[in-house]
Design brief:
Elements lengths: L6 H15 L1 H7 L7 H15 L1 H5 L2 H16 L10 H12 L4 H11 L11 H23 L8 H18 L1 H6 L7 H6 L4 H5 L5 H23 L18 H7 L16 H14 L2
Helix pairs in contact: 1-2, 1-3, 1-6, 2-15, 3-6, 3-8, 5-7, 7-8, 8-9, 9-13
Length: 286
């Protein structure tokens, strides 16, 4: 009879959850050494869990309660706070095994509070800051996992890679966010191109929106270029933490095709192609 408790089960559950909700990071973790994979599964599954809280909770107050549960878990000392929650159990095991700072997880939670509300994003600094506090922070923690808790460097590259990944993800999710009543593109960008929040919520494709999205893609590309420029500072043992960034260029190219529609096109790659791109990047660099 299979055992439905203990660390092995918790890590298996984390891997299954990650594979369902974030294939890009799931596949990237497969390129890590076997002893690090379960810990990356747990870390990335947690990142996905708190990123999806708005979708699950559907309202700000229940979302705040869920985030507070995680915050209490990391700020407390008792391991029994996991309360039989497999992902929480796996994450606490990872924090202990790889000597990760609990405050970094609290900071990730705090960065996700704004996702529960529909407040506009004022400018580029706000958007890039949010990507840095979420996606870049996750890369940084993955680097620590791969380096067994020691600082492996590469913080600047993690910053750029996370913003490239985060901004590209927001562009891919534009139709989904619009259906939720959310607009995550900077207001100053939309104003310059004559696009309103109401236009996006209505799914109104226009030349102004197209030019605004092109500018956003160019911004993501600049962070991707900065990541590649500093690739020599990325140690080989932490490269798996950066592999999701290898998919950014392909996603951006899909959104630059003549038949791309901001609200109707599905920007995705086949699983085999993702693995092939990451395999090449694991040998040749991002």
């Amino acid at each position: 009879m299979p055992e439905f408790t203990g660390p092995a089960f918790a890590f298996d559950q984390a891997a299954a959850q990650l594979r369902e909700h974030d294939r890009d990071r799931y596949y990237a973790a497969l390129f890590a050494p076997p002893e690090s994979r379960p810990h990356l599964f747990a870390l990335y599954a947690f990142g996905s869990e708190i990123a999806r809280i708005r979708d699950v909770a559907r309202d700000a107050l229940p979302g705040e309660v869920r985030l507070q549960w995680w915050r209490d878990l990391f700020e407390g000392e008792a391991r029994d706070g996991a309360g039989g929650h497999p992902l929480a159990m796996a994450l606490l095991e990872t924090i202990d095994a790889r000597r990760l700072p609990r405050q970094a997880f609290v900071n990730l939670i705090d960065a996700r509070v704004s996702d529960l509300y529909d407040d506009p994003v004022a400018g580029w600094d706000d958007l890039e800051g949010h990507c840095g506090e979420t996606s870049s922070a996750l890369i940084r923690l993955a680097c620590l996992v791969l380096a067994d808790g020691a600082d492996p460097g590469g913080a600047t590259q993690a910053g750029h890679a996370g913003v490239a990944i985060g901004m590209t993800g927001l562009l891919r999710a534009l139709p989904w966010h619009a259906r939720q009543g959310r607009v995550l593109l900077p207001t100053e960008l939309l104003d310059r191109h004559g696009v309103s929040r109401a236009d996006i919520l209505a799914g109104d494709d226009s030349p102004g929106l197209r030019s605004a999205l092109a500018e956003c893609r160019a911004r993501a590309r600049s962070h991707l270029a900065a990541t590649r420029e500093g690739a020599r500072h990325i140690r080989a043992d932490i490269l798996p933490a950066f592999l999701p960034c290898a998919l950014v260029d392909g996603y951006l190219k899909q959104m630059e095709r003549p038949d791309y529609h901001p609200f109707r096109s599905r920007v995705e790659r086949a699983d085999w192609l993702k693995l092939a791109i990451m395999w090449r990047a694991s040998r040749q660099g991002i």
